[in-house]
Write a structure and sequence with these properties.
By secondary structure, this protein is α+β, with helices and mostly antiparallel strands. The protein has helices spanning about 15-35, 45-50, 55-70, 75-95, 130-155; strands at about 5, 100-105, 110-115, 120-125. The protein has five helices and four strands. Helix 1 runs antiparallel to helix 4 and helix 1 packs parallel to helix 5 (about 130-155).
Length: about 170
């Protein structure tokens, strides 16, 4: 069977959209933590500083600022575990968002993604359902809520999370 490049099937588009929206919300929570911990009041300046940074760099900054402000080792370990969860859902998001979609002769659809694991390049080709993609959006939403709860529990000063959950 021959495959050609195409768009994802229409029934998967809402799930792909939710992955995008939930990930944006998670990134906003990470950024807001950095802004609050660094006590930057000008949101424009704060946004200008974090916008060009990739997620791993932002998470490093968040951890460093939290250590600087809170110093408690137990709390830092909790944040470290949360950052690992964030990196895991970011990897799942990248697999969906950066995938190439292939259409088959019989109108079948496959997602082609390239990942690097343990320094090895892997090519993954598989049919993925809308439910599988929606589960990734749910995972991202859950981690975003855990980060928000972490901020609330540890009174991270200056952080106001005004973004409403998508689900």
């Amino acid at each position: 069977m021959a495959f050609r490049h195409g768009l994802p099937p229409a029934e998967q588009l809402p799930a792909i959209g939710m992955v995008t929206v939930e990930y944006q919300r998670l990134e906003a929570f990470v950024n807001t933590g950095i802004w609050g911990l660094s006590q930057i009041e000008d949101k424009g300046a704060a946004s200008a500083m974090t916008a060009p940074l990739n997620l791993p760099t932002r998470l490093n900054i968040l951890r460093a600022l939290f250590r600087l402000n809170h110093g408690d080792e137990g709390i830092n370990k909790k944040l470290e575990k949360l950052c690992k969860k964030i990196q895991k859902v970011a990897s799942k998001r990248a697999e969906v968002i950066h995938a190439e979609w292939l259409r088959g002769d019989r109108d079948t659809s496959m997602m082609l993604s390239v990942t690097i694991r343990s320094g090895e390049l892997r090519l993954n080709r598989a049919a993925k359902s809308a439910e599988w993609i929606a589960a990734i959006a749910d995972d991202i939403s859950t981690v975003a809520e855990e980060l928000k709860q972490f901020y609330d529990e540890h009174s991270v000063a200056g952080i106001e999370l005004e973004i409403e959950p998508g689900h």
